[in-house]
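re: that chain from earlier
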Amino acid sequence: MSQIRSACLDPDYFGKLSQYAFGLLQPKEFLFLTLAAEESQFVRLNQAKVRQIGIVQDAILELSLIYQSAPGRLHKNSYSLTLSGLGAEDQARIKDALRSLQSEVQALPCDPYAELPRSAESSHTENQGELLDHSDVLSELLAPLENTDLAGLYSSGPVVRAMAHSEGQKHWFYTENFSLDYSLYTQTQRALKGTYAGSKWNREAYGAEVRKSKEQLTLLNTQTIRVPKGAHRVYLAPAATYDLVTMLNWGALSEASIRQGDSPLRKLQTGEKKFSSLFSLEENFQKGGSPRFNSEGELAPERLTLIDQGQLRNSLVSSRTALEYHVKSNQACSSETLRAPVVAAGILQESEILKKLDKGLYLSNLHYLNWSDQPGGRITGMTRYACFWVENGKLVAPMESLRFDDTVFNLFGESLLGLTQSQTWIPEVGSYEMRDLGGMWCPGMLMDRMTFTL
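^ sequence. v structure.
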C-alpha cells in the first residue's frame, strides 16, 4: 500500500511515466496525460458508531492520443488505466494502452474541434494540510457524538490532479483536506444535515459545529405543520443557496449551450430578462480548493467575473467551443461548468435573518432539483432536512416537505431581497470514483417570494 503513497502522489514519478509515454510516440502523434490520484481514509458512521473504516489508495491515468493525418485533420482516441505505483508494471500498462490507441486512432473520423498541444506555461501547486493521524481519527470523531443518532461519512487525505503533454507542458496540483458529511436524526427520524470540512483539523471548531447541530435538532422534535402551497417569503441558508446555484452547472453558464439555444440563461444573455443587482457570481481560483488547469493544459484566469450585479458578463468557454463558434476561450473545462465558484456576500447580518424574514419559510437544504423548463430557466425541487415555518421573526415548528417550481429570474432576480454578510464554504464531498475537489463560497439568501406547487 505504501508504494502508491511514495509513487503516484510524487510529481517526479508522474514526470518519469510521462517521459516514458512520450518516448513511445510515432511521427505525427501527440499525447495528453491526465492523472487523478489519492490516498484517502474513509470512516462510515451510523448511530454515531463506526460501521466501516479503511484506507483507499487509487491512481487513474488517462491517455488521449491525437494523430495528425494532414494539416488541419486530427483524429483523437482516449484510454484510462489504473496505476500500481510500481514503475516497471505501470510502464508496461502504458505501453499496452498506447499500442491499442495507435492501432485504432487512424481509423477514427476526423475531429474538427480537436487541438494540438501547445507549449505554454506550466504550474506546480502544493497545499499542505494539518490532518488527523489515522490512529487518532476515531477518538476525535466520536468524542462529541455521545447520545446522538448520527449517520455520516468522514474522508481525509492527500489528493492529486496532474497533466502533461508531449509538447512539454506540465501541471501538478496536490492538496490535503478532510470532510465529515453527516446527518443528525431525532427519534422520529427527522434529520438535520451538516458538514465540517477543511485542510486543518480543529478540535474546538468541530465540537462547536456538533453542538450547534444538536441545538437545532431540538426544534425538529416538535409537531410538524403543513404549509399551504403558493408563494411564500423564504430564507435560504447557505447550503440551500449552494443547491440552487449548482443548477447553473447544468448547461446554464456554458457558451455552447447558449449558442445552441438551450441555456436557462439565454434570456439573461440577450437582455430579455435580468437578475437582481444584488447577485454576483465569479470563478475564483485564489481560494486554492481546485486546480486552475483543465485537461488540455490550459490555465484559467485566477478570477473570472460571470455575473456582475445581475448582468451576465462572461460565460464559460472551452477551447472546443471557441473553435466551433469562433469566439475567445477563457480556458473553461470541457464540460463548461463551475470549478471555483464564489457568490458575492451582501449586507444582511445573521442576527437579523429571522426578523427580516418575519413570516415565511426557513429552508436549510433543497434536493431533487431539475429544470422543469430549461430554456425558460424554470427549476423544480423539494425542501429537505431542517426546514421551519417562521412567524413574527421566530421559528415556530418544522414543516412538511414542499415542492417548489420557480424561475431563476425570480429566485436570483426580482424576489431577491438580500444576501448575508458572511459566506459559508460548502465543499464538494462526492467520492463516486475519486474524492471530488473544490466547493462553493456562498451566503444565505432572503427572498420576498418563492412559489411552491405541492
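The chain is about 20% helix and 40% strand.
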